[in-house]
Specification:
Elements (H helix, E strand, L loop, with lengths): L1 H9 L4 H6 L10 H12 L12 E12 L2 E9 L9 E7 L6 E7 L6 E10 L13 E10 L3 E9 L7 E2 L14 E8 L4 E8 L4 E7 L6 E7 L9 E9 L6 E11 L2 E13 L4 E3 L7 E2 L7 E5 L10 E6 L13 E2 L1 E2 L3 E8 L2 E8 L1 H7 L3 E9 L14 E10 L4 E8 L5 E6 L4 E5 L15 E5 L6 E9 L2 E6 L4 E6 L8 E7 L3 E10 L2
Parallel strand pairs: 1-20
Antiparallel strand pairs: 1-2, 2-3, 3-4, 5-6, 6-7, 7-8, 9-10, 10-11, 11-12, 13-14, 14-15, 15-16, 15-17, 18-19, 19-21, 19-22, 22-23, 24-34, 25-30, 25-34, 26-27, 26-33, 27-28, 28-29, 30-31, 31-32
The chain binds beta-D-fructofuranose.
Length: about 525
């Protein structure tokens, strides 16, 4: 991959170059200066997370597997690194890790922007759009007319998603509302029909519709006004999930809306059942279940038409609307999460969402340079990891607390900056502290500490920590809690250090997979 060699070069870019990054220049740049500026800023580009080659992206759209390829469409502005002119960009992958970029799939036209939505593999040609006999792709998206209306439209592709034709009978679902968007359509096998879950954002609710042909839709139910209603509801998805160690299956409704951190965007989920027409929650609750306890995971939706035997796979946009337009990357802005395989676990009388990086991610990592340590008591100024500097890696670690108040690991570290991933015993919380992670002052709301409630198991804590230049995704206790945060190291900050405060803690095992 081209990005690897670039990364190698970037690691050795001198410190002073980074310090000049992003500063306004009065004189026109020389070619050398431009190269330096782009190179230093490109250091934020992740290696194994999806980013567009350039320009702005937000929500993942139209996630569908078709003929062995995983399609990733996404909200895209081809004109710059700010939100605007929305249309669907496109990439494909065979393993959900390595992506091939394709031309824009669905275009903005006159006053119509293409907002978020989904894509299905219409294998039986229920829509009548498919020309061959192997089915075709149909996209169901929101047509956005600023300050006027949002309605749902269709487009179809008979060349595996490369070119698209908008349906001449659009819209297929218009209820005359200014805010009505983000249709997720999936095949509901028990009823042999298509089901759409779509959001009425300002009413904090979603609606369910059914259709035999993707063109004619009928309302079957609604759900809303519970959980978190501090922000509008967007990008719903309704997912059938297996329950770990049980034969049971449950339904989960996920919503992008408010956050547990006040005036930020975030994601919540509800567990329950779907009877083909409406969603029935396990309980009515105003205490939301948060999907990710970081600040940077939003608008996530799952893949349609996955091969048999694979659990639903979720992809989210790594950013937060609060500061999304200000993050210091260039010439692109925005990335996607590692695709996450979902399931449920029954715990304390509730069904909890479990999220794990997809298996192909681990398969990819095992081919990397591996370091292993075990049975190490963490010392003050611990030096165990002193030779392992890295900016993109996977760290699988199990801690055992003895009598510490707090313990964990600092990553992306130098003498001045670090991102701390720790566990605080007093309030049983896992946290990511990015207050001193590097560049934080591009927006007043960025510097922060994110926490997730979590209990130690027999004094032990298992973490899978994914670090990739400007993102940290922490999966704790086999996917029970996740914290996803962006960070923007200022300088050559690739150190790692274990720490324990107020007593002792040990590392039972530690495996690190390092990319070079
Ligand atoms: C969520 C969202 C969607 C909308 C899209 C527009 O991030 O606001 O509701 O379709 O972004 O880009």
């Amino acid at each position: 991959m081209k990005q690897f060699s670039k990364l190698f070069f970037l690691l050795y870019v001198p410190l002073w170059l980074s310090c000049n990054a992003g500063k306004d220049k009065k004189e026109p740049e020389t070619e050398d200066q431009t190269a330096v500026r782009l190179t230093t800023l490109e250091k934020y580009r992740p290696v194994y997370h999806f980013t567009p080659q350039e320009n702005w992206i937000n929500d993942p759209n139209g996630l569908v597997q078709f003929k062995g390829k995983y399609h990733l469409f996404y909200q895209y502005n081809p004109f710059g690194i700010q939100w605007g002119h929305m249309r669907w960009g496109h990439a494909t992958s065979e393993d959900l890790i390595h992506w091939e970029h394709h031309p824009v799939a669905l275009f903005e036209e006159q006053t119509e922007m293409i907002f978020s939505g989904s894509a299905v593999a219409d294998l039986e040609n229920t829509s009548g759009f498919c020309t061959g006999n192997e089915g075709c792709l149909v996209a169901i998206y929101t047509s956005h007319f600023p300050d006027e209306v949002q309605y749902q439209s269709l487009a179809f592709s008979n060349d595996e998603g490369i070119t698209w034709t908008k349906f001449e009978g659009n819209p297929v679902l218009d209820i005359g509302m200014k805010d009505f968007r983000d249709p997720k359509v999936f095949w509901y096998d028990p009823g042999k029909k298509w089901v759409m879950v779509v959001s009425v954002p300002l009413e904090f609710k979603v609606q369910f519709y059914e259709s035999a042909n993707l063109k004619d839709w009928e309302l079957t139910g609604e759900f809303g006004n519970q959980g978190n209603v501090s922000k509008i509801w967007e990008c719903p998805d309704l997912i059938r999930l297996p329950v770990e160690n049980a034969v049971e299956e449950k339904w989960v409704l996920i919503i992008s809306s408010g956050s547990r951190y006040g005036d930020y965007t975030g994601m919540q989920y509800f567990t329950g059942n779907f009877d083909g027409e409406k969603f029935i929650p396990d309980e009515r609750s105003d205490e939301p279940e948060w999907l990710d306890y970081g600040k940077d995971f939003y608008a996530a939706v799952t893949y349609n038409n996955l091969p048999d035997g694979i659990n639903p796979v979720l992809v989210g946009w790594i950013n937060n609307w609060r500061y999304a337009n200000s993050i210091p990357t260039d010439p692109w802005r925005g990335m996607m999460s590692i695709p996450r395989e979902l399931s449920l676990k029954r715990q304390g009388g509730k069904y909890r969402l479990i999220q794990k990086p997809v298996v192909s991610f681990y398969e990819y990592m095992v081919t990397k340079e591996k370091f292993e340590f075990s049975d190490h008591v963490i010392k003050e100024n611990d030096l165990l990891l002193k030779d392992l500097s890295a900016g993109s890696f996977l760290l699988r670690v199990e801690f055992e607390n003895r009598d510490a108040d707090e313990f964990g690991i600092d990553v992306l570290k130098d003498e001045n900056y670090k991102t701390r991933i720790g566990f605080r015993v007093s309030d049983h919380s896992l946290f990511v502290d990015r207050e001193k992670s590097g560049a934080v002052d591009f927006h007043a709301a960025f510097a922060s500490i994110e926490t997730a409630p979590l209990s130690l198991q027999d004094q032990r804590l298992k973490l899978d920590i994914l670090v990739d230049q400007s993102v940290v995704e922490v999966f704790a206790s086999d996917g029970l809690r996740v914290i996803t945060d962006q960070v923007f190291p200022i300088s050559f900050q690739e150190g790692l250090q274990l720490y324990a405060i107020g007593g002792s803690a040990a590392v039972v095992s530690l495996e690190m997979y390092k990319l070079r």
